[in-house]
Every structure is written in structure tokens, then in C-alpha cells.
Amino acid sequence: MIKVLDMVRIENELSNTIRLEFPLKSPKYIGLTRNRLILEYPNVFPDLANIGETVIFSLLPIAFSESSNIQLPDSLSLEVGTFDRIDRIIALWNGWFQSDRKIKIIANAAVKTESREEKRFGAQLFSGGVDSLATFKRQRDNIKYLIFYNGADIRLTRPGRFQQVKNYLERFAQRYGKKLISITTNVHHLHSVSWEHVSHGCAMLGPVIALSKYINKVFIAATFSGPDSEKMPWGSHPLLDPMVRCEEIETIHDGFDLKRTEKVLLLNIEPELIKYIRACGANVKKGNNCGKCEKCYRTSVILRLLNIDPKETSFPKESFELDNISNFLSRGILQEHTKFFWSENLEFLESSKQAVEGKERLIAALKDFLGDFYKFYKKGFSNDLPKSLEYVSKWRRIEKTLRLRTDTLLWIKRFLKLLKRRTYERTFS
Questions:
Q1: Domain chopping of the chain, boundaries
Q2: Closest CA to 271 of 249, 301, 248, 303
Q3: Which of 51, 53, 60 is nearest to 7 (CA)?
């Protein structure tokens, strides 16, 4: 069991922040890297509420990963509806990850109060990427706050890079009359549970719930699109995100109806937005995109086909050369889930009448990389996604092969984790 022992509130006048620390107690086999959850907010929002939901949703992916219950202290309570939403999230994860786990939440139920009458506004989780910019363009009239995380795609150990990107996004917010909110969380590296496939939706929507006296809805941009990718197990998902909330906040998974290529086309209607695209989290000295990674290339190829001048973007000129993209793809080092994005790009390449040097070679490289996936993408996946896109642990695969119940082998996993931890402690003590 993961026990939240208490809540410590620290107000720092020098940094103008409110820091919430939650001491944690759990068996060593759970594998927490720290014994406390930390959240930090700007002190312009002093009246934090629904802290119980904030903590539970932050820790829920870890609890599910370890088949562990969670206990809150008496000082933190949950709305009655939260228990039902948690059960539905667990059921969704069980379906995705082919398990049958039951996670018990031990907490007091909050007394229902009347709806708040304070003036509250909409917010959006914002990173500056194509997805979040597309959501911003669609929903800007419904948004006052842009929320950017320290500890999400930029590690807490890179404060210089975080400040660089924060300054960049603050200029964007000021340009469009919005207010940037910076929230710090250590939950990304509190445990080894997959950030992409399991935890990032809960980890980033959960802390926003504490701002329920100031925010009435929060938008989170969709990563994937279409009915086929709806089957894709992912930390932020149209079926999951609406359940990560409290009664006073509505969470909206936005942009699932648009392919990534369509999002770039949408941004191109307002070319100034193209200049702000921050595709990758690389630690570059100048600019916001390294121009050499998969995330940069999956965006720059669309910009190139739209005949957009690299000088009018935040990408290096080299990232617009299709031969460089072909060479990158030929290495075959991409993750399986990126095939959705590159299938959309290949579809766009084949339909584009723009004559671009290296286009035919890139089409050939993409067909080689995607293989049969592109054929299924074009026709539509009739049943389930390919096995390569399933995110099922090796332990669960063994259990299924041996026709064992979920977590029958959990004790072996925990024993090996403890053994590895003790070996590490002996080596470095």
C-alpha cells in the first residue's frame, strides 16, 4: 500500500510559490525513487482546493502499475464521485493492459457543498507543440490560462532549459493576452511506470484540480486521432482524460478529430502560430528545436511540403531537407507508436502535388519503415491494433502464456526488484 502520511504547505516569498509536500510510505518493492510527492504552484493562487483528488490522480498510475492500494490521511478527502471515476479509469487500464487489477482507495468522502460562484476561467495544458497550438487556435476564446509543467517533458534537473522555454512561452502568452501558469511536479520520476503509455494524463491533469477555485475547465490536446488510434493505450486519451477531474472542473480532450497533418494546416491559416512551434524537448543552446530528432522531422516534413520558409519557423534549415529525413528513417530506431504520425505524413506526401527534392526517396523510405502498418492504416484496423502497439508487461505475457491469473507472478517481480535495489545500495553505500 502507498500511504500518504500528511500534507506540508510551504510558502516561499522569494520564489513567489506555494509548495505542497506529501510524505509517502510504501514497501520497498513498490520502487518509489523518493519518499514524497512534491507539487509547486504560483502564489497568485493561494486558495488551493480538492487536494485529495490532486494527490490521488498523481499517484494512481503508480498504484496501478504496482497493484497497490492508496491511503490518504484524514486531512485529505475525496468527492463521492471521485471513487466512481477512479474505478472507471482502472477498468479502462485493465482492458488496455490485459489485467484484472482492483485498486482500493482508502480516504474519507468529502461533504458535498454548493457549487462555487467565484469567477473562474478556462485553462489549457500548453507546451508549444503542434497539438497544443492547434488546441489553442480552436479554443483561445475559452482559455485564460496556459499551464506549463516543470518536471514533465523537461526534467527537474534541467532548470536552465526550463527557464529558457518558460520565457519563450511567456512571450507567446503575452502576445495573445493569456497568462502562463508554471506548475512543478516530481511525479514523472517518482516511479518507473511508463510516462507515455500510462501516467502523463493523470500526472498533468491531477495537479490542475487544486486550482478548482480559479479554473472551471481545462483543455488537454490530443496526441493521436481517429477511431483506430482510440484503441491505442496512451496516458492521455479521449476515454480517460474526462474522468481526471473534480465536480468543479471539466476536462476536455481536444483535437482527436484532427490528424497531425491537419493540425499543421490549421496553424498555417494563421502563419504567426507556425513560428512558435516547439516540437522537441532537446537541450539546445539556441532556439526551441534541435532539428535532428523524430519529433522535429515529423513536423518539418509537413512544413516543407507547404513550402514554408524555414526562416519563418523555429526549426533549423537542415531539418527541411527531405534527404536528411530519409537518412534518419533508414536507421530504423523509431518507436512503434510513431507509425501513426508517419502514416499520416506518408498519406500527405502521396497526396501533395508539391515538387520537392528528395520527395520520392522519402516516400520509399517511409514505405520501407511502415511496412504493412500503412496498408492497415489506409484500410482501417478492423479489430485490434497490431501486437507491436500493445503495451503489455513481460510478466503479464508470461501469465497469459501459462494461463495464470493477473499478478500470479507479481511476487517474483517484487523479489527481483528488491534484489536489484539491495545490490545498488551495497554498491553505492
A1: 2-254, 260-268+282-388, 394-428
A2: 303
A3: 51
In angstroms, the CA 419 to CA 63 distance is 21
CA 247 vs. chain centroid, Å, equals 22
Q: What share of the chain is helix, strand, coil (3-state, %, to 5)?
A: 45, 15, 40
pLDDT digits 0-9 by tens, 162-189: 998 999 999 999 999 999 999 999 999 8
Ranges of residues in the chain with a pLDDT under 70 are: 112-117, 228, 283-287, 381-397, 399-400, 405, 407, 409-411, 413-429
Residue given cell 500528511 in the structure block: 6
The one-letter code for the residue type at 290 is C
Give yes or no for a contact between 191 and 62, defined as CB atoms under 8 angstroms apart: yes
Per residue in 220-245, pLDDT tens? Answer: 999 988 776 777 888 999 999 999 99
Q: Which three cell numbers stand for residue 197?
A: 503509455
Q: Quote the CA–CA distance of 359 and 325 in Å, as a whole number.
A: 10
In this structure, the dihedral spanned by the alpha carbons of residues 417, 423, 428 and 429, taken in order and rounded to 10 degrees, is 100
Q: How far apart are CA 253 and CA 236, in angstroms?
A: 8
